[in-house]
Amino acid sequence: MKTGRPPNWNPVAALCHDVWTDVVPLASKGRIVVPVSVRSRLPWLANREGGLLGITETGRFAELMPWEPHGRQAMEAVRRAIDAADATERGELALAAMDRYLRLTSDGAGRPLLPGALVSHLDAEASSCVRVFMRDARLWLWSERQWQAERARRIAWLAEREALP
After folding, report:
1. CA-CA distances (angstroms) from residue 37 to 132, 135, 163?
2. What predicted TM-score, i.e. pTM, was given to this entire model?
3. pLDDT band at residue 49, thresholds of 50, 70 and 90?
4. CA quadruple 44, 58, 79, 43: dihedral, nearest 10
5. How far apart are CA 39 and CA 6, in angstroms?
6. Which residues of 141-153 are buried (b: 16+ CB within 10 A; e: fewer)?
7. DSSP E strands: which ranges in 52-92?
């Protein structure tokens, strides 16, 4: 799978500028290249200071957003929850937060480095790729296997709408 191909393969992109999806290979050390079509639509990706916050979701996907202010706010909320919990729950809360919130950095070329926990969550080692999905200035990474498992449902849904008068 080659990165950097022109976005003309996707004729629908011109119809809805706020949406994009593509599959990208998982490179060495868990790096991915976010497609130019996504980077041009999400100016906050250019700011590499502080990194990115990854929030894992059930279903093998994760939302990415700028660490500032989102990561700081998430850590403040986790701190409050841990401080408010009784002693027997603090460790479990911390473990749950470690599973849910991840900090991503970028290499010198601006490619996000996915932590091992995120690579595992996205099942990216098995498929050697991840699905990049952008909508309404938000960015997610999906397991390509999960994305493909839901593809038939999306296509059937579209076919129903196309058949409407």
Report:
1. 11, 12, 30
2. 0.86
3. confident
4. 0
5. 13
6. bbbbebbeeeeee
7. 52-57, 61-66
The per-residue pLDDT of the chain, averaged, comes to 88
Q: How many angstroms separate the Cα of 136 from the Cα of each of 18, 34, 110, 157, 159?
A: 5, 16, 22, 20, 23
Which stretch of DSSP H or E encloses residue 129?
strand 129-135
- Assess contact for 132 and 45: CB atoms under 8 A: no
Give 35-40 contacts, CB < 8 A, sequence gap 24+.
35/3, 35/7, 35/132, 36/4, 36/7, 37/7, 37/10, 37/13, 38/132, 38/134, 38/139
Half-sphere exposure of 60 (CA within 13 A, CB side): 18
State the pLDDT confidence band at 18, using cuts at 50, 70 and 90.
Answer: confident
Q: Which residue has the tokens 């850590």?
A: 75
The owner of tokens 């929850």 is 81
Q: Say if residues 139 and 63 touch (Cβ distance below 8 Å).
A: yes
Contact 10, 114 (CB under 8 A): no
Q: Residue 129's Cα: distance from chain center in Å?
A: 12
pLDDT tens for 64-82 read 999 999 999 999 999 999 9
As a whole number, mean pLDDT of residues 116-143 equals: 94
99 token code pair: 């599973």
